C-alpha cells in the first residue's frame, strides 16, 4: 500500500498525456544481484535513461549509505 511515512519510495505511474497520472498502490520491489528481495530504506529521483537500444531506470537510494541504483 502507498506509504505516507515521509520516506520516499519509487512507484510505477501511468499517463496518456504526461499531465494526468495514476500510480500503482504498491512500490516497486527491488532485488539484489543474487535475485533476493531487497527494499532500500528510501529511493527517490528516478530517471529513465536510454543507452543504445536499452532503457535503464536509475535512482538515488541508501545501499549502505548514499548511492545510485540501476535496473
UniProtKB/TrEMBL annotation:
InterPro entries on file: Glyco_hydro_beta-prop_sf (IPR023296), Mannoside_phosphorylase (IPR007184)
Molecular function terms from GO: glycosyltransferase activity
Keywords, comma-separated and alphabetical: Glycosyltransferase, Transferase
Coiled-coil region list: none
Pfam families according to UniProt: Glyco_hydro_130
Gene3D superfamilies membership: Glycosyl hydrolase domain, family 43
The name this protein goes by in its record: Glycosidase
Provenance organism: human gut metagenome
